[in-house]
Amino acid sequence: MDHLSRRTVMAAAAGLGLTGLAGTTHGRSSPRTKHPGPEHDGDAHRGMCVVASVNGLPAVRRARELMATGTDPLDAIVDGVAIIEDDPEDTSVGLGGLPNQDGIVELDASVMYGPTHKSGAVASLRSIKNPARVALLVCRRTDHCLLVGEGALRFARQMGFKEQDLLTEASRRAWQQWRENMSKEDDWLNDDERDEPVGKVLEQPGQPATPGQRARHHDDPGFTTGTVHVSGVTAAGDVASCTSTSGLSWKIPGRVGDSPIIGAGNYCDNAVGAAGCTGRGEAAIVNLSAHTIVSFMEHGMSPSAACLEAMKRVADRTKEKRLRDGKGRPNFDLKMYAVRKDGAWGGASMYAGASMAVADGAGARAVKIPSLFDHPLG
Ligand code: ASP
Predict the structure, then answer these.
(1) Angle between helices 57-68 and 73-86 in degrees, nearest 10
(2) Which atom of ligand 1 is least distant from the CA of 251?
(3) How many angstroms does the Cα of residue 224 sit away from the middle of ligand 1?
(4) Does ligand 1 lie within 6 Å of residue 281's CB atom?
(5) What is the pLDDT confidence band of residue 346, given thresholds at 50, 70 and 90?
(6) What digits encode the pLDDT tens for the residues 199-225?
(7) Ligand 1 contact via 260 beta carbon (within 6 Å)
(8) Of the candidates 309, 240, 316, which has an alpha carbon nearest to the alpha carbon of residue 274?
(9) In what helix (H) or strand (E) does residue 270 lie, and over which residues does it extend?
(10) 276 CB near ligand 1 (under 6 Å)
(11) Rounded to the nearest whole angstrom, what is the distance from the C-alpha of residue 125 to the centroid of ligand 1?
């Protein structure tokens, strides 16, 4: 095998009864267990359900309620996603999303609708807080699949969306902190570098500084990621999916992640199911991860097995040294979520400790998901 530890893959395979995975990796079957653990309970579920990244808990609740009253699954999912996009506290999506390196928020989103096998997406969209709603109209009102940048904004205006500043004071401050700490050589001064009289406490707008708060500003916020993905299946077996994000924080303006790329961060097929990803978008793009998950389900894997196998594919194909740790494992995280047409659902993460949101017959809740590696990142 490439650079995955034999122990880790065997553990994942044993937990899932993944004879295919174990067979291709080791040339023999792994032992099956009767019950692979609560992380895989969704594989046994049947009927209507909605899954999401863990920040999408309010979204799955809303979407399932709407679907239960007969609302079209894509309308229901996009409505659920709008709750997260509208939330200024979620710095990974919509209003309050962390901006690009110039301090400007650029959003990506996509939708896909199983019954018509049609998608819609927007990328690098500025000033509109609900990119998933714009993506839905690209899907329903145009012959296209993806609009970007200025064209996406013009389309949104034409469809009646209102422009607004998406930067909140918290996200602006995070950007400023990142910018000031980027280099000692540039003209931006962080707290350590400012030439202030000894003993003077620096004031932040709207936040009187204390020595403790000043210390907090010395932390480099680094690059962060975050996204909401939601996939759902109705009682009749129709599937739909949506992914919405502000993407990688401090990105190069114009950088587009996996979220609006159909097959990468979002995909559905009414004959099989739906899937999506959050985390390092570049990895999901080069591995076409959402499509890969759906394809694995089409070939008989359960949702959590399909996610784990797609995750293994990402790990195996992470070849660049700068993206690998000392043991050859990816030095980034990725999470995958899936529903199958019959209502089975599951997810997986690269590293241990992750959860996802689900609303199925047992209600809306966050649940732990299996991981490819049995320890947390780092
Ligand atoms: N996948 C998103 C992107 O790369 C970010 C994330 O999910 O954290 O744009």
Answers:
(1) 150
(2) 9
(3) 9
(4) yes
(5) very high
(6) 554 444 444 333 322 222 334 456 666
(7) no
(8) 240
(9) none
(10) no
(11) 15
Distance between Cα 266 and ligand 1 center (Å): 12
Task: Please answer whether residues 294 and 140 qualify as being in contact, where contact means their C-beta atoms are separated by less than 8 angstroms.
Answer: no
Distance CA 290, CA 229 (A): 11
Instruction: Specify the pLDDT at position 196.
Output: 61
Instruction: Indicate if ligand 1 lies below 6 Å from the C-beta of 245.
Output: yes
CA torsion through residues 20, 22, 23, 29, sign: negative
Domains of the chain from N-terminus onward: 6-19+38-165+222-373 (3.60.20.30)
Task: Report CA(34)–ligand 1 centroid distance (Å).
Answer: 35
Cα 203 to chain centroid distance, Å, stands at 36
Q: What is the pTM of this model?
A: 0.85
Q: Which of 159-173, 198-212, 250-264, 353-367 has the lowest mean pLDDT?
A: 198-212
The burial class, CB within 10 Å (0-12 / 13-18 / 19+), for 45 is buried
Task: Give CA–CA dist 315/308, Å, rounded.
Answer: 10
CA distance 175 to 128: 19
Query: Shortest CA distance to 293 belongs to which of 278, 272, 279?
Result: 272
Phi and psi of 7, rounded to 5°? -60, -45
Work out the angle at residue 222's Cα, subtended by the Cα atoms of residues 217 and 227, and round it to the nearest 5 degrees.
115
Please tell me if the CB atom of residue 265 comes closer than 6 angstroms to any atom of ligand 1.
Answer: yes
Active site residues: 227
Could you read off the pLDDT of 266-288 as tens digits, one per residue?
999 999 999 999 999 999 999 99
Torsion angle (degrees, nearest 10) of CA 49, 256, 333, 74 = 0
Mutational test site, ligand 1, from 54, 245, 256, max ligand atoms within 8 Å of CB: 245
